[in-house]
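Thread: "does anyone have the structure for this chain?"

Original post by V.I.:
We have the sequence but no experimental structure in hand. Need at least a predicted one for the grant figures.
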Amino acid sequence: MNIGEVIKCRRQKRNITQAELAELLKVTPQAVSRWEMGVSYPDIAMVPKISEILRVSADELLGIKPSDKNREDGDNNTVLNQDQVDSIFDYTPVPVTGKSKKILVVDDADFMRMMLEDILTHQGHTVLQAKDGQECLDILRDEAVDVCLLDIGMPGMDGIEVLRKIKEGQPGLRVVMLSALSQEKNVKQALQLGADAFVVKPFQSQRLIDRI
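Reply from O.Q.:
Generated one for you, tokens below.
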């Protein structure tokens, strides 16, 4: 299900009207209606609040489906927050330039790709989309991009394997991992394989923009 379908299903299970949900989120009932019809979608910053009100995980809202490998390892691995991830990557904020970039967004969730395209195009960037790892690699064979924004938990080839293949073929391509699978193992492996940054879902738009 996409995020609008999840919101509708969970709202109805909790016997909350669209107007009541809108009031709790400080948006209009029309906005909630548009989400549920798939016409628009909530801002990423609202996901934690929606998750809390509807008692649904952020992963389910965002359509995140961890691979079997990550499900097995996750219980035995510390999940890191953004500050902890930044410490591992030795991230230092730098002034944001106005230079436009061509960015390839790779995520199996339709909502996430559309939302990222909206965020990035409003910053003046050009966005290409891939729904899985193989499509990502196919696009990179034909298109020159500046940054690849890469999810980890995707069906088939996961983001760690895609990162490995990208760096084998195009070692100079900038790659930003964007995933809720922020277990320490995944973060350190991404760094070792050459990722330039790691943004934890759900995220604040500015944090992503800063790293790109």
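V.I.: this helps a lot. Residues 67-76 have pLDDT under 50 and may be disordered.
O.Q.: and The chain is about 50% helix and 10% strand.
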